[in-house]
Write a structure and sequence with these properties.
Radius of gyration: 17 Å
Largest sheet: 5 strands, mixed
CATH superfamily: Metallo-dependent phosphatases
Strand order of the largest sheet: 3-2-1-9-10
Number of helices: 7
Mean pLDDT: 96
Order of helices and strands: EHEHEHHHEEHHEEEEE
Distance between the termini: 41 Å
Low-confidence stretches: none
Oligomer: single chain
């Protein structure tokens, strides 16, 4: 029986992602994978991460703010001559992404894969998948791209609401899967469940594990910590 699994922000952490696939017994041919964005920027193995994701028959990716930064750079006519990368992106993980391609152009197949992203996904079970969050007073199609990729308010207000009304459903969705705001900022490396909002960015691009979750059962699997996988650190 096929499943739909949701993957928190990979951030170039290839070893963590492979452990998530192995531990969840992910089937590259039968299962559907939804990636919550930020494939890029973190550990210098973005190339390997995309190579692996390209092997998945049914892989859907949500646009992350780091992916948007990377695409803006790699979609340039000639990105490595007479140009300097945006310093903010470079310092926030862009350097690692560039290193993963040996400071050369990204292969067209990889850029096309990143460009196949969705600003958000709503599935047949009325679950929403988005990188940052939403303004719950507006339908998804009316959200700005900036809100969808950068919002941190949804998880904050959902945390507060959960203590009062844990069954509250933001935006009328069944479940809302998000990344972007690492759960480490809330003092944990486990997924967060606040009302119908589920945060799966458990810090895989920093010092936390990567998380993959079964959409329907909410069972999840995590990788080892980066310090046990690499002799380098991710984003600082």
């Amino acid at each position: 029986m096929s499943r739909t699994l949701v993957l928190g922000d990979p951030h170039g952490n290839i070893k963590g992602m492979l452990q998530c696939f192995e531990r969840s017994k992910f089937d590259y041919e039968k299962d559907t994978l939804i990636v919550l964005g930020d494939i890029c920027d973190g550990f210098p193995y973005v190339k390997q991460v995309i190579d692996e994701l390209l092997k998945v028959k049914d892989c859907l990716i949500v646009l992350g703010n780091h992916d948007a930064w990377a695409m803006e750079w790699y979609d340039r006519e000639d990105p490595y001559h007479n140009a300097t990368p945006d310093r903010w992106w470079y310092d926030q993980g862009g350097r690692a992404t560039m290193e993963s391609y040996d400071n050369k152009a990204m292969p067209k197949e990889h850029l096309k894969f990143l460009q196949s992203n969705y600003p958000y996904i709503v599935d047949k079970k009325n679950n929403l998948y988005v990188h940052g969050g939403i303004n719950p007073s507006k339908p998804a199609q009316d959200q700005s791209l900036d809100t969808l990729t950068w919002d941190r308010d949804l998880i904050r207000v959902a945390r507060h609401k959960h203590s009062q009304k844990p069954k509250y459903k933001y935006g009328g969705y069944n479940k809302i899967f998000i990344g972007h705001t690492t759960t480490q900022s809330y003092g944990t490396t486990k997924p967060l469940f606040f009302c119908n909002v589920i945060n799966l960015d458990t810090g895989a691009g920093w010092s936390g594990p990567m998380t993959i979750m079964d959409r329907d059962t909410l069972e999840y699997w995590q990788s080892d910590l980066p310090k046990d996988l690499y002799d380098i650190q991710g984003r600082s």
